[in-house]
Design goal:
five-stranded antiparallel sheet; 10 helices; alpha+beta
């Protein structure tokens, strides 16, 4: 086969990114920031730069001979009916459904045994499918609905109120809502949260003071009362009403870790706000109540979490009593059918135990296999609960669970063009730099030869107490069909082993996360799954930081780097949108000289060096990402392009009308994965792929 023109990557001409002369000073150290101008997402200069970069990127991708084959296979496999578990609200049963390739899931409803009807179709919200449905909240009797929408992937939302029975829109849209659910109080109104709209760009300007509002039906948004957040400056505030409409529960936090907890008795018109926890050293939330008896999930004095009970009249921690005590595994509880369900992660694998309201264990729930479950939540009167089961080789299926008998039955299995019997998945434990044992799950086709030549994607996250548990992915299935290995490492900074595991990857210990990831790559190479020329590293958001840090610390480790929507400028991340709330994990460049120097020591934007051969890199971001603003990716790509010393391409793919990921239309997702996989395989030297 004749080698296509794309191989002449030495001739790749990048757009020239002009350099400014901005210099910041931190604790007496001057730090140049030549690409500061790219932070202005509203400037004509930034817009022109984005267009020029995308032109180079797509010209390159267009020349990969099997890119369209991958896209076609992804499209074919994606095209199957997907249906969620049902939920009864009022006289109707509601469920989400996607016929196969619809950009957004449609909500259907049915009454008794009647034919299902379309209730809400987000595909009609915009022509290109980039307006998506966010939170959905019904009143207790199912007669009213509040739902939020996102335009272009932004975290800013609009809230629409409708009569759920007639589907009639009831009043003006509520605007400028962010990081919020909607929690109804009876049929009178609902609580929601937002920030004041910032001055400057709504997609990048800092949002620092979150407030809880109450919207009374039939009134204007301008009349909505602020319930919490004027005197008390907090970055994240949430309010929810208990199922019996008795209490308003308020959580308030300055960071993504730890929160204060407050409660208000709504049965008494002028009741005061009562403090349950007055500090944010721990995570706490009310999961249930029986009259005055509160059930609270907490990791106070219990790094792996426990459930406690306490009387509303004396709710502070000295009065707490264990209901479900802490164990050596991390707890995630839920309630439904008049029971509590304690879901545990055991080395990232799910186990579930059922308890009654007296704290007595009823049974361990028999699960369909080894993997991840989600669900077991519902109302007290629900006779049947639903849960999903999945792992890296098993597409997610829904099971119906009878809480009285403890029996599960298959409710819905997807009809997907994928044969799990052809693949295998195993968990191993490897040793990190400081001797810590880290779990990793490796999945691939059965019978692959361990000769060091298997294209491999190593995926990681390692932050914010988030756990990576086994889950099936259509896109990974296509990767593995083509002989690829997919490995997921459960790095420190995540939540797999509780608060101690999380804390071991934060602030001045963040390097542990990068060391864990590097050690995972070394394990895969030592055990001949792959080798440097066939290894790609991938991660998104905090995982994008992981990829950026590891590729700048160890550019020799991998052939391809895929940082997605990454936090890449660690000296300035806290100055954009809600970034200041991430300081628990990262620390900030302003808090101390030691923290500044530590951040500068690994910040990807600040550690690209001239004369180094960096791996083939495809940076991905969205122009409407107001969680991790695209300026992070812009500045990192500009640094890499200016300093790359070898033929490996450095490209940035900027999705337009897209945000941090949630609500991205199916069509855009398929194209993005086709681009990522073809770029990766091509730069590993793979000339042909498996075809149907």
């Amino acid at each position: 086969m004749e080698k296509p023109a794309i191989e002449k990557t030495v001739g790749l001409e990048y757009p020239i990114t002009k350099k400014g002369n901005v210099v910041d000073e931190y604790f007496g150290t001057k730090v140049p920031d030549p690409y500061r101008w790219l932070e202005d997402d509203r400037s004509a200069g930034t817009e022109a730069w984005v267009k020029a970069q995308n032109k180079v990127t797509f010209n390159y991708l267009d020349q990969i001979p099997y890119r369209n084959d991958i896209k076609k296979r992804l499209t074919d496999v994606w095209n199957y009916e997907k249906i969620s578990a049902p939920r009864k609200r009022g006289d109707f049963t509601y469920f989400y459904k996607n016929d196969g390739l619809q950009n957004q899931y449609v909500i259907y409803r049915q009454k008794d045994d009647a034919e299902p009807e379309v209730f809400l179709d987000p595909n009609t919200f915009s022509e290109d499918g980039t307006t998506s449905l966010g939170a959905v909240s019904f009143t207790e009797d199912g007669s009213l609905l509040a739902y939020s929408i996102s335009e272009g992937g932004s975290d800013w939302r609009k809230v629409i109120i409708m009569n759920a029975v007639t589907k009639q829109i009831l009043e003006d849209t509520i605007v400028d809502v962010k990081f919020s659910g909607m929690s109804w109080y009876k049929n009178e109104g609902f609580y929601y949260s937002s920030y004041d709209k910032p001055e400057g760009s709504e997609l990048s300007a800092k949002t620092d003071q979150h407030k809880l509002y109450y919207h009374k039906l039939g009134t204007k948004q301008s009349e909505d009362k602020v319930i919490f957040g004027i005197k008390q400056k907090r970055r994240y505030v949430g309010g929810s009403v208990t199922d019996d409409n008795r209490f308003l529960i308020i959580t308030a936090a300055v960071s993504t870790s730890g929160n204060e907890l407050y409660i208000k008795d709504l049965s008494k018109p002028n009741s005061k706000l009562v403090t349950i926890v007055n500090h944010s050293d721990n995570d706490n939330y009310v999961i249930e109540n029986e009259g005055d008896k509160l059930f609270i999930v907490t990791n106070m004095d219990a790094p792996n979490k426990r459930v406690i009970t306490v009387d509303f009249k004396n709710p502070t921690p000295e009065h707490w009593t264990d209901f479900i005590a802490e164990t050596k595994n991390v707890l995630s509880p839920s309630t439904g059918s008049g029971y509590f369900f304690a879901s545990y992660m055991v080395d990232a694998i799910s186990k579930v135990f059922q308890y009654d309201y007296n704290g007595k264990m009823v049974r361990e729930v028999a699960l369909p296999g080894i993997g991840s479950v989600g669900g077991f939540g519902g109302k007290k009167e629900d006779e049947i609960l639903y849960y999903s089961f999945s792992n890296y080789t098993t597409p997610s299926s829904i099971y119906a669970f009878d809480a009285k008998t403890g029996t599960s039955s298959l409710f819905r299995k997807p009809n997907i063009d994928f044969n799990p019997d052809l693949f295998e998945s195993k968990q191993i434990f490897y040793t990190s730099k400081d001797g810590t044992k880290i779990p990793m799950i490796i999945t691939h086709k059965k019978g692959i030869v361990l000769n060091g030549k298997n294209p491999t994607i190593l995926y990681g996250y390692g932050g914010f107490n988030i756990s990576l548990t086994p889950a099936f992915s259509l896109t990974n299935a296509i990767w593995m069909e083509n002989g690829g290995v997919y490995a997921v490492a459960n790095l420190r900074g995540g939540g797999e082993y509780g608060k101690a595991w999380h804390d071991a990857g934060t602030q001045l210990k963040k390097q542990n996360v990068f060391d864990d990831f590097i050690a995972a790559a070394e394990y895969l190479k030592q055990n001949k799954y792959t080798s440097t020329n066939y290894l790609a590293i991938r991660g998104g958001s905090n995982g994008g930081l992981l990829v950026g840090a590891v590729m700048t610390q160890r550019p020799d480790l991998m052939k391809v780097a895929l940082p997605a929507v990454g936090v890449l400028d660690m000296l300035r991340y806290h100055t954009f949108t809600a970034g200041a709330g991430w300081a628990y994990d990262y620390g900030t460049s302003e808090q101390s000289k030691e923290m500044f120097e530590y951040l500068k020591g690994y910040s990807p934007v600040h550690n690209v060096k001239k004369g180094v051969c960096y791996p083939a890199t495809l940076v991905t971001t969205g122009d409407h990402d107001d969680r991790v603003v695209p300026a992070h990716s812009f500045k990192f790509a500009a640094q890499l392009q200016a300093k790359q010393s070898c033929k490996n391409p450095v490209l940035i793919r900027i999705e337009t009308n897209a945000g941090h990921g949630a609500g991205t239309p199916v069509s855009k997702t398929i194209q993005q994965y086709a681009d990522i996989f073809s770029f990766t395989l091509w730069n590993m030297g793979v000339k042909e792929i498996v075809k149907d």
